[in-house]
Amino acid sequence: xxxxxxxxxxxxxxxxxxxxxxxIGCNIWLVLTTKKQLFSDIQRIPPNKVGLVLGTxxxxxxxxxxLFFRYRIEAAVALFESxxxxxxxxxxxxxxIAYNETQDMKNALVAxxxxxxxxTLDFAGFRTFDSVIRCxxxxxxxxxxxxxxxxxxxxxxxxxxxxxxxxxxxxxxxxEDAHSFKTLIREFFAKTRAVFDIYIFHAEPKFLGEKVxxx
Length: 215
What we know:
- Helix 1 (2-34) packs across helix 5, helix 1 packs across helix 6 and helix 5 (150-162) runs parallel beside helix 6.
- A six-stranded parallel sheet has the order 1-6-5-2-3-4, sandwiched between helices.
- The protein has helices at 2-34, 67-81, 101-111, 128-137, 150-162, 178-199; strands at residues 38-39, 50-54, 87-91, 119-122, 143-149, 166-172.
- It is of the alpha/beta class.
């Protein structure tokens, strides 16, 4: 029995090791292949007609303001004011009546001076995979700028590349606190899932629907 348990234990450790190696490999792949498409300097990023802001909640569960949200809005406004984008698609989760990332993002953009007519809402951006694919298949965009934090842009741009889209990412200001650490851990596994969704599961967004003219 002891020998059998050792074999099972070694097999489990082996699977964990292989899984970790695969996850690390996926993360390295995403980072290296998207590096030249990510920009933090607004002067260097090429202009596009459309910017896609990836959704996140306005507040954390404890009621504190979510800096990821604030910095993404600031980045989108900066791009718009610098004429690096002319129209903004805000894509987020609106799966619950009391939870509306998309409307919150629009309200923040309008409050910052972006005209209502320059904003399109995507209420079915339940995850990054959905947001990028819907920007292409529903809103008809093949060239656009993705706006989020750098770690998030790496995954989003990778998804865009897999679709043959011409995308770049503008890195919003990073959040240097405990919430950021938790997010980065989650992102490590999200990058792995993105690779599997694209090349193994051939996943599709939760909703597509009829095409919508973005602007």
